[in-house]
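Ops channel
N.P.: pipeline sanity check, posting one input/output pair.
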């Protein structure tokens, strides 16, 4: 069993409040979880309006599949969510 984890720091320039941030983040996380069958959660920067950190985890028999899924998640964020910008990315594989 192999596990891939990814930590993304995201900038949300249009957010004017924590409520705005949560709305955008909730939509993003629900879509990614459903589309890619991953575990995803906000893991940092809870009190900032325009910055958040999310954690993503997935499990597979092969590291190449984990890499494909994580790359697809990042590409989907960049393509389908123009109101957010990934400013940091950290990926690790275990297993």
């Amino acid at each position: 069993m192999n596990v891939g984890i990814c930590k993304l720091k995201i900038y949300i320039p249009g957010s004017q409040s924590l409520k705005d941030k949560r709305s955008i983040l909730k939509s993003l996380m629900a879509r990614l979880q459903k589309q890619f069958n991953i575990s995803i959660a906000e893991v940092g920067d809870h009190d900032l309006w325009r910055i958040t950190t999310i954690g993503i985890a997935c499990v597979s028999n092969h590291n190449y599949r984990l890499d494909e899924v994580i790359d697809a998640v990042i590409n989907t964020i960049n393509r389908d969510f123009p109101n957010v910008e990934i400013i940091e990315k950290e990926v690790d594989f275990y297993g």
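N.P.: looks fine end to end. The beta strands are 2-11, 39-44, 51-60, 85-94.
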